[in-house]
Amino acid sequence: MKKKAPLSADAGVNTRLAHIGHDPFSYHGFVNPPVVHASTVLFPNCRAMETRSQKYTYGTRGTPTTDALCEALDELEGSAGTIVVPSGLAAISVPFLAFLSAGDHALIVDSVYAPCRLFCNAMLQRLGVEIEYYDPEIGGGIESLIKPNTKLVHTEAPGSNTMEMQDIRAISEAAHRHGCVVTMDNTWATPLYFRPLDFGVDISIHATTKYPSGHSDVLMGSVSANATYWPQLKETAITMGICGSPDDSYQILRGLRTMGVRLEHHQRSALEIARWLESRDDVARVLHPALPSFPGHEIWKRDFKGASGVFSFVLKAGDDPVRFKAKAHALLDTLSLFGLGYSWGGYESLAVPVNLSDRTIRKAPEDGPVIRLQIGLEDVADLKKDLEAGFAAAAAA
Questions:
Q1: Coil, strand, or helix at residue 194?
Q2: Partners of 352 in beta bridges
Q3: pLDDT for 52-86, tens place per residue?
Q4: Are 394 and 330 in contact (CB under 8 A)?
Q5: What residues contact residue 29 under an 8 Å CB cut-off, 6+ apart?
Q6: Is the pLDDT at 1 greater than 50, yes or no?
Q7: Are strands 350-353 and 370-374 parallel, antiparallel or unpaired?
């Protein structure tokens, strides 16, 4: 049967998203890959079982469905291999467990995703790993923090909630001079707007729950590695029995097909709302890397190809911190189009109050509470009306 022609090197991003990860003619011409449910895989004889001389041997080691998604992600990331796991947090914890042992030292960015901090403090430290948090804007200066036992440097850009930008290339170069593995949570940008491995990162991490899914109904994470670290990552996932399900893999692969179109809309709408918020007297600051006023804007402009739909703002609330929560809650409780819910990357807009009490370096701002927005696919005019009602309620609180 006819084989699909390979994509040309200059194919556009949406063309690539529409065609990567599956050859229809490898399975009777059906456009989408089959959903293969598997635990047991049969071998034709004992010799094949002993030598594992067939592609599939057990459900935890992959199926045609999970492989289709991993191949698509490798195409996007430029990686040597990818594993899919049941959540974004699992996508962080598996490589940490793969590359860290008792007695090792790990540098973790202080603006990290909060559940990652909890995993480090509650699990890794209990296992004998020394954890140190560093300023997200340290850049190449991170070399001064590297110890003889430093084995891993974890980055995230922009930072969770407060959106600090990191000089990923400078950090990677410094870390590699000392033999450290560099990991990056790149969920915000996706590989469409930033490819970590092109900037020296060894392990690219995504909560595919977010933009690759796009519909707020799938939990999954992915971890993509360069050739140096892929074997150890793969072996760890197999040893731990961590794997993504075929059904979820199918849904993520389906979501990838429209991710480019959706991201363009998220980006455009979020920037319009961010600029509008920046013009308001009741907003102290807008934390969005694509705004020229943002401290990390030049790094974003230099390294990133776009911005997604998540950013934060500081609500102007006077100089009495006691009033911060009341004003933030008044604003948020008034919203009707913006849902109050965790996660992001779906079609619906969300808003959450930000808790920064776990920070050790980048503390909460003193001029008001931080509110994070996820701008969905709704019309901007309607979202502005919703926020207007929230600001009115905050003013009256």
A1: coil
A2: 372
A3: 999 999 999 999 999 999 999 999 999 999 999 99
A4: yes
A5: 1
A6: no
A7: antiparallel
- Count of CA atoms in the C-beta half-sphere (13 A) of 68: 31
CA dist 296 to 28, 142, 252, 255, 301, Å? 50, 17, 31, 30, 9
What is the rounded CA–CA span in Å between residue 187 and residue 204? 9
CA 175 to chain centre: 21
β-bridge mates for residue 152, sequence order: 106, 181
Q: Is the peptide bond prior to 158 cis by the omega test (within 30 degrees of 0)?
A: yes
In 37-196, DSSP assigns E strands to 81-85, 105-109, 130-134, 150-156, 181-185
Contact 145, 361 (CB under 8 A): no
Helix, strand or coil, per DSSP, at residue 301: helix
Quick one: which of 170, 168, 208, 236 has its CA closest to 76? 208
pTM, two decimal places: 0.95
Q: Which two tokens stand for residue 91?
A: 């996508």
SS3 184: strand
The percentage of the chain sitting over the pLDDT mark of 90, rounded to a whole number, equals: 89
2 pLDDT higher than 70: no
Alpha helices in 58-167 (DSSP H): 64-77, 88-99, 114-119
Distance of CA 253 to the CA centre of its chain: 16
Given a contact cutoff of 8 angstroms between Cβ atoms, the answer to whether 168 and 201 are in contact is yes
Q: Tell me the two tokens of residue 352.
A: 């959450």
Which residues, including other chains, have CB under 8 Å from residue 205's CB and lie 6 or more apart?
88, 91, 92, 95, 183, 184, 185, 186, 187, 221, 222, 223
What value, to the nearest 5°, has the Cα angle with vertex 75 and ends 74 and 77?
A: 60
Task: Count the Cβ atoms, other than its own, within 10 Å of residue 4.
Answer: 11
pLDDT of residue 25: 83
What is the bridge-based pairing of β-strands 81-85 and 181-185?
unpaired
Task: Please report, for the chain, how many H helices and E strands are present, in that order.
Answer: 12, 11
SS3 of residue 288 by DSSP: coil
Q: Which amino acid is at 31?
A: V
Strands (E), 135-261: 150-156, 181-185, 203-206, 221-225
